Amino acid sequence: AQTVTQSQPEMSVQEAETVTLSCTYDTSENNYYLFWYKQPPSRQMILVIRQEAYKQQNATENRFSVNFQKAAKSFSLKISDSQLGDTAMYFCAFRGDSGAGSYQLTFGKGTKLSVIP
Amino acid sequence: KAGVTQTPRYLIKTRGQQVTLSCSPISGHRSVSWYQQTPGQGLQFLFEYFSETQRNKGNFPGRFSGRQFSNSRSEMNVSTLELGDSALYLCASSLVKFGLTGEKYTFGSGTRLTVV
Predict the structure, then answer these.
(1) Does residue B60 belong to the interface with chain A, where contact is any CB pair within 8 Å?
(2) Could B56 and A44 be called an inter-chain contact, meaning their C-beta atoms sit closer than 8 Å?
(3) Which region among A73-77, A90-94, B50-54, B71-75 has the lowest average model confidence (pLDDT)?
(4) d(C-alpha A19, C-alpha A90), whole Å
């Protein structure tokens, strides 16, 4: 079974600064996907960024980028130029790719990020 | 393009009752997954439906069940409610190609269930 660990329950960052959220995972699969989701108070889970394990290049989406270290099973999220709207819970998630057809997301416990004006 | 719609947004039920939650996926998405979110356990997978069939199930008791209709809309049911069933229930829809669930999941805003 896969596990996802987020070791930082809470973090804060000054507006316009950069912050990095940590995530580690455990799996025996070689092919898989990793995600960062954001959950604001509105409760909807919003996809921030996605990484395919077979791609060595780190994914980037505007101010969001990841540092994917496959050998270390590490997948951290960097948020640059933090904005007040980035305040939310952030979840790291894993999805296998065994070709079985049905897949589930395994989530970490989340990191509560507060952006301070 | 309409998103994933979950109804109702809030629900209060009494212990022992049963409840049905609804999820309408994005048009064209044939896979619907359900997750339970609680402060203590976090986000846990309940089940996934595709073509009206349950393809995968998480570690939940038989009181939790679901179904999917021909238009891909899904419902989940919890019978004999317990206080511990109080949670945010999220559904996510995804495309399916060649029978494989895609890697992009779109979530609804969830149903907040409170059991008293």
Answers:
(1) no
(2) no
(3) B50-54
(4) 12
